[in-house]
Amino acid sequence: MTAGLMIEQGRIAGGVWEAMVTGSDKAPVIEVLHEGRTVEGVEVRPVTGKAGRFALRVPIPAWALNEGVQTFLVQSGGVALAQFTLVAGQPLDEDIRAELSLLRAELDLLKRAFQRHVREG
After folding, report:
1. How far is the CA of 56 from the CAs of 3, 10, 28, 48, 85, in angstroms?
2. Given 3.30.70, 1.10.10, 1.10.1740, 2.60.40, which CATH number is that of 6-120?
3. Could you identify which of 2, 8, 22, 113 might form a hypothetical disulfide with 77, taking C-beta atoms 3.0 to 4.6 angstroms apart as the criterion?
4. In terms of Cα–Cα distance, which of 120, 88, 112 is closest to 38?
5. pTM for the complete prediction?
6. Cα–Cα distance between 15 and 58 in angstroms, integer?
């Protein structure tokens, strides 16, 4: 079910990351992770009059607002669909920190998928 899913129009407003999900007839199950921890309160709702489009709302939790680069990984069924990044505190010397944070989030996703595969097989 996750093969054709796509995330469009991501933006942050009022402490909530909002996006559109397309590529499914049914509301997909979306999970958002920050440093391996699941973000609670993720909402996926059909868009009225637009078949196959779903509004995604991810509240940014206070526990995730810290100094530095914070990367959130949006996934469905263990497949990464998108990510969003917050930068807080002192200005960064280089954007490489954001890239490193994203790589760490993706590595954590791969690690969890591999561990699940080993347990199941």
Report:
1. 18, 9, 10, 13, 16
2. 2.60.40
3. 2
4. 112
5. 0.74
6. 9
